[in-house]
Specification:
The protein is an alpha+beta fold. The protein has 4 domains: 102 residues, RNA polymerase II/Efflux pump adaptor protein, barrel-sandwich hybrid domain (OB fold (Dihydrolipoamide Acetyltransferase, E2P)); 51 residues, Wheat Germ Agglutinin (Isolectin 2), domain 1 (2-Layer Sandwich); 49 residues, Orthogonal Bundle (DNA polymerase, domain 1), CATH 1.10.150; 49 residues, no CATH class. Helices cover 39% and strands 15% of the residues. The protein is built from 13 helices and 11 strands. Strands 7-6-5-8 form a 4-stranded antiparallel β-sheet, with no helix packed on it. Strands 10-9-11 form a 3-stranded antiparallel β-sheet. Strands 1-2 form a two-stranded antiparallel ribbon. Helix 12 packs across helix 13.
Length: 351
Amino acid sequence: TEHSLESLQPRIEITSAEHGKGDVVAVYLLPGGSYLQIKDNAPVVKGTILAKLLKEGTKTKDITGGLPRVGELFEARRPRNSAILAQVSGLVSIGAIVKGKRTIIVSDAYGHEYKHMVPMGRNLLVRDGDSVEAAEALCDGATDPHDILDILGENALQSFLVDEVQEVYRMQGVQINDKHLGVIVRQMLRKVEVVHVGDTNLIHGQQVDKYRFFEENDRVITEGGEPAVARPLLLGITRASLSIDSFISAASFQETTKVLTNAAIAGSKDELRGLKENVIIGHLIPAGTGMRKYRDVKLKDEELLALQQKVDAVKESRRQEMIDDDDFDVEDLADMKSVGDTVDVDELDED
């Protein structure tokens, strides 16, 4: 019953001798409602099926699969009954039952112990003495991307999200280049939360864009102050789109009236840094030759470049002729450029 599962848990013990009188060589903890496939004191060999789990537990992955799984990942929702992940790499030891939860202890290489509380009804994926890696699942369930971010960091989370989305589309026979998903994931990770203010003008707990956070830290470091410390945040695409600095871009997505009202009250200023707001205004997007530092770059055709070199050569020869002329007047210097231009065209036409 559910009450008995709060303090007891079914298990299968395998001993080295008959009738359970030998040493225990293996212990398998089972969730409540499992179906035993062997009898007590029956001999077993390697590969023998000991028990079968409930089908409801195996349906979870199928229900959360497909396109709903993509929406769950992009919206950064925490899945129901998510898997408990190991906080560090180390050895597993099964602890006592506390308030209906099994204690799983992971000891790292330095002897530090990290406790993980797993509900009794969940199927354990590890046994006593197993070696696990950081962020490895200790029980069944969907992986929470927020846990991946807390344990392994941004790079591991980016790879996890891209791989999970690609897996769904590959099952449907659709191929998508990783760069498209990478752009979306990058926008989901554009915010950080300030945990230590330092000498900056930021506020503890404030959520700011990474570029603004780094700009503020660079300013403080240049002045010899203490920089701020922040932790990365994972936002869903809806929340990430509405929390950007550009009110023009945010208003074009959702809640237009609310976004424009808040921008008007706050007197917000749009710097037109992104793509969407520049497209809405009718400007070139800040990418490639549309970036400000590249807008003044002029590309020259090889034929036009060769023609310009001929023009420059004729100008130089005309200048030398005028200087070598005994009747050369200093006043002719003012008209030298215009004279050179007219002569250049005539001489080039004759060639």
